[in-house]
């Protein structure tokens, strides 16, 4: 119980650490789901959507703890707006990177890394208004 409190306190006091931890876990989950979806022959757009959707379920509840959000209806709506925006930005960047890099999983990894800083500020100041 004490370790849980310490970790939660650390994440709330230094929200970047919590964001990077949860973001890293959900990004890995997103990449695994994306790679599996591509491997079974789904389109890149559907693979991105599946990866994003599954990771989003973990992501929202994790970030609501990091940013001390209540998970209110308005924060859920704002979160969904950022997720949909992230999806379309991800698709555009993925399409562009695939022209330069001949590996969709590496391209997707780079896209996630490029969008992560913007996503941090969107979650902190727009979704959870911390």
Give your account of this protein's structure.
With 130 residues, this protein is mainly α. Helix content is 86%, strand content 0%. It contains five helices and no strands. It has helices at residues 2-13, 15-39, 44-66, 73-100, 104-127. The model has no long low-confidence stretch (mean pLDDT 78).
Sequence stretches where pLDDT stays below 50 over 5 or more residues: none
Terminus-to-terminus distance: 26 Å
Q: What oligomeric state best describes the polypeptide chains here?
A: single chain
**Beta-strand content estimate:** under 5%
Q: How is the main sheet built? A: none
In N-to-C order, the SSE pattern is: HHHHH
Helix segment count? 5
On the 0-100 scale, what is the average pLDDT? 78
Q: Tell me the structural class.
A: mainly alpha
Helical amount: over 70%
Shape type: elongated
The number of E-state strands comes to 0
Q: From the alpha-carbon coordinates, what is the Rg to the nearest angstrom?
A: 15 Å
How are the SSEs ordered, and which strands pair?
Elements: H1 2-13, H2 15-39, H3 44-66, H4 73-100, H5 104-127
Briefly, what is this?
By secondary structure, the chain is mostly helical.
């Amino acid at each position: 119980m004490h370790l849980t409190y310490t970790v939660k306190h650390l994440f709330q006091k230094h929200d970047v650490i919590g964001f990077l931890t949860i973001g890293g876990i959900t990004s890995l989950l997103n990449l695994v789901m994306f790679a599996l979806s591509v491997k079974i022959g789904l389109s890149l757009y559907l693979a991105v959507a599946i990866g994003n959707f599954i990771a989003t379920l973990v992501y929202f509840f994790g970030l609501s703890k990091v940013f001390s959000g209540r998970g209110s209806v308005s924060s859920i709506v704002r979160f969904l707006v950022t997720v949909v925006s992230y999806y379309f930005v991800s698709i555009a960047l993925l399409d562009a990177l695939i022209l330069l890099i001949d590996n969709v999983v590496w391209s997707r990894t780079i896209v996630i890394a490029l969008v992560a800083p913007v996503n941090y500020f969107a979650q902190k100041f727009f979704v959870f208004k911390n």
